[in-house]
Amino acid sequence: MLILARKTGEAITIANNITIKVLDIKGGMVKLGIEAPTDVSVHREEIYQRILEQNRLAAMGGPIDMTALTSALQSTMGPLGPGSNSGQPETEPKKE
Amino acid sequence: METANQDSSLSACHTGTSARQQVPQTVTSKGNNTMKVQTSRFGVLEIDDAKIITMTQPFLGFPDSNRFILQPHGPESPCMWMQSLDEPGLAFVVIPPATIHYQYRPELPKYVKDELQADESSTLDTLVILTIPRDDPSAVTANLLGPVVINVNKRLAKQVLLDPLKYDCCWPIGSKAA
């Protein structure tokens, strides 16, 4: 791991187009300003961890009781038959 | 033995759901190339190449699975299996979010659209992953924080990380969508 010491107002640059600047240091908390191209995703690490753990919990290794699941869905949402839901389409209605 | 060459396209997303009024664009199959894949859930699946969904980045925690297929649960269920073609044992249960949360329409960051090679004419479909506790399926939750977004036209998919202040990774399905 590369370790760099930075003071408030100083920055590091990654690959020409990502800049991370130390904006403030107070009470054990560092405030960082991140400039990156729009195609670079920036997230707090714990969000990655949360999704990773949730994915592992959601991954179905063995069989599941489909009847129990369906009845669970129905008990909270009403009948799941065709046309039973008045919700909106979940995707952007883009037409050609 | 089941085969997956007739009804496993994305149109399965909308079977029996509220979103059936929206007809997804069907990707034209180029030729009839099929592949056979061993899965632990469905046995050997014969899969039309045109139905394969490729992840632009794998699911977090599952770096070895890049190709998936959507299999409907059945006519009575809005759920689908998102079955890995690279790991026979791996499948997620996914559902069109409109069936459980009618207000859920997350805004997608530009980098997501870029990564999925989406333009104005692209159809982007969103699915959320269900977590179903084995000992109590009624405690099912939906991951609204990390939905799967699919470019239907290019058959590219990505799990998108949204704002944790707005979306819950284990939203109880019985919650009021208010």
Topology:
The complex is a heterodimer of chains A (96) and B (178).
Chain A: E1 11-14, E2 18-26, E3 29-35, H1 45-58, H2 66-77
Antiparallel strand pairs in A: 1-2, 2-3
Chain B: E1 34-39, E2 43-48, E3 53-55, E4 67-72, E5 80-84, E6 91-95, H1 110-115, E7 124-131, E8 141-151, E9 156-159, E10 171-172
Parallel strand pairs in B: 3-9
Antiparallel strand pairs in B: 1-2, 3-4, 4-5, 5-6, 6-7, 7-8, 8-9, 8-10
Q: Which spans of chain A of ≥5 residues are poorly predicted at pLDDT below 50?
A: 80-96
Query: What is the overall shape of chain A?
Result: elongated
Average pLDDT number of chain B: 80
**What is the distance, rounded to the nearest whole angstrom, between the alpha carbons of the first and last residues of chain A?**
49 Å
The assembly state of the depicted protein chains is heterodimer
CA-based shape of chain B: globular
Q: Which pair of protein chains has the largest interface, and what are the residue counts?
A: A-B, 50 and 67 residues
Q: How many extended strands of chain B?
A: 10
Number of domains of chain B: 1
Q: Architecture of chain B, according to CATH?
A: Roll
Strand arrangement, major sheet of chain B: 3-4-5-6-7-8-9
Strand content of chain A: 15-25%
The helix/strand class of chain B is mainly beta
CATH fold descriptor of chain B: BH3618-like
